[in-house]
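STRUCTURE:
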């Protein structure tokens, strides 16, 4: 066995039959941008998108936007808005559910104080997800005496570990 306690430099090519680097010694900067690493060895980032038609008045509905396939993961970001703003006291509420239960500290409320295409951030209170969790956008509307906005949209960013 060969052992060196000093720094060194190889000027030629080095090959190993069995390399066992210490944990943490290979970092992101050490991996080439074009490295062909198997997807099963990576954390996956997904963006789930939800949208009602841009010219259609906001309507109450629930729609699945993602099913978790990795062993575990974390909800990173959730936001929503309307393509056409609400007028008066009309409001659109957008919630994110995991397996039928809200994961936000409160649903996002979009009202006349939000302009057309404003992206309103939600606060995720339960971020952890596991395989087969179903993530669903839930929209509720209250027309009041005003006019509901049009084209409700939302997005969800998720990180998943493959295994």
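SEQUENCE:
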């Amino acid at each position: 066995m060969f052992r060196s306690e000093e720094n060194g430099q190889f000027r030629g090519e080095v090959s190993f039959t069995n390399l066992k680097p210490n944990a943490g010694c290979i970092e992101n900067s050490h991996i080439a941008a074009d490295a062909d690493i198997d997807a099963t060895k990576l954390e996956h980032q997904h963006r789930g998108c939800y949208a009602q038609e841009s010219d259609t008045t906001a309507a109450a509905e629930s729609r699945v936007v993602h099913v978790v396939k990795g062993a575990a993961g974390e909800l990173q970001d959730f936001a929503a808005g309307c393509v056409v703003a609400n007028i008066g006291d009309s409001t659109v509420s957008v919630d994110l559910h995991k397996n039928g239960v809200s994961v936000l500290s409160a649903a996002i409320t979009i009202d006349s104080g939000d302009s057309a295409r404003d992206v309103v951030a939600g606060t995720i209170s339960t971020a952890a997800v596991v395989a087969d969790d179903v993530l669903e956008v839930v929209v509720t509307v209250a027309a009041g005496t005003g006019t509901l906005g049009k084209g409700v949209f939302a997005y969800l960013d998720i990180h998943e570990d493959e295994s």
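REMARK: Strands lie at 43-51, 61-67, 72-84, 91-98, 101-102, 108-110, 120-121, 128-130, 134-142, 150-161.
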